[in-house]
Amino acid sequence: MLLITLSKRSAVEPFHAMDILAEANRLRQAGRPVISMAVGQPSHSAPKAALDAADEALKHGRVGYTDALGLRDLREAIATNYRFRHGAIIDPARIAVTTGSSAGFNLAFLSLFDPGDAVAIARPGYPAYRNILKALGLHVVEVPVTAETGYTLTPASLERAETKAGRKLKGVLLASPANPTGTVTGREALRRLVNYCDSRNIAFISDEIYHGLTFVGEETSAAEISQNVVVINSFSKYYCMTGWRIGWMVLPEMLIRPVECLAQSLYISAPELSQLAAKAAFSAENELDVYKESYRTNRDFLMSRLPELGLPLASPMDGAFYAYVDTSRYSNDSMDFAKRMLAEIDVAATPGLDFDPVEGHRALRFSYAGSVSDIAEAVGRLGGWLK
Questions:
Q1: Model pTM greater than 0.90?
Q2: What are the helix (H) ranges across the chain?
Q3: Residues 227-282 pLDDT 10s
Q4: What does the alpha-carbon distance between residue 386 and residue 263 come to, in Å, rounded to a whole number?
Q5: Comparing C-alpha atoms, which of 76, 75, 80, 86 is closest to residue 225?
Q6: Nearest to 337 by CA among 322, 327, 326
Q7: Where are the extended beta strands (E) located within 50-146?
Q8: How far, in whole angstroms, is CA 259 from its chain's centroid?
């Protein structure tokens, strides 16, 4: 038998949310009435304009390759969106269309960092950041975000983390609104962070995939503040197009060609069909804002009910569509808690260990991107189970 040695870079932690989702799907296929609050997938369909555009494209066989950086029309539409939503004038040449935001992170990390470079991320934070960085041989510096720091990164917290790590930071990655905390980093706080990184030649990457889903605070794009930042966004969340795998990057001029060359070899291009649908999605804001209001209804309900059930909020719910709660009243093993909850009451949620390997054993994340009726039913089951 051939013995193959696996690479060290493949030894990353599983994405527990996807494991929970797989089990939820298995139970649902077996006839169980599972309600999934495990992953950040809107229950709403892609907007009608996007579906119509995709249908028209299919009729004409528009399913081929495009330029690696994306269709010119889509890049111009994205630039126009920044002008209207953020007052930022961006040359469409600085925009790269990607195969979801995941490809955007890969392209950003590969074009900016070498193996061994130190990159700071928030803890708790999206687990794929940590896993991709580690797989690429980068040194991950996890910076605790607490009430003291406003649940976001600050220049002071970065300085402390850099000192503790004993190495200079090469990059900083911040999400606003953030997953799982829901933190919205305000304009001045974001400006201080970007200026801090600029002054120290630290690359700043801004994850803005939950833009459009801000309920409290200022929704600011880092592209408004500096042309040196890398902004990553996606049509998955606000635009309800998760499976279309379509996102974008706003790049400093010096990164355009390196990202293009990497994208040519890694991805060739984002799917043409998805690009055509994404361009049409920009005309659907009235429809999408109705969806947003359903998330707001879910948010308000969970903000009230979860603490009443003994699951206090562990962070704000100012944006995105997550409730991050403290489970320590019932369990200090969030993985076991999540598995029992799924097995016994058919409600799926994500253990906090995904987001925080230090404190996440006593936290759980609920996604409230589902329907209002499903969220209400899930909380009703949860209330009976906890009693």
A1: yes
A2: 16-29, 48-59, 72-86, 100-112, 127-135, 155-165, 187-199, 253-266, 272-281, 285-308, 334-345, 372-386
A3: 999 999 999 999 999 999 999 999 999 999 999 999 999 999 999 999 999 999 99
A4: 49
A5: 86
A6: 327
A7: 95-98, 118-123, 139-144
A8: 21
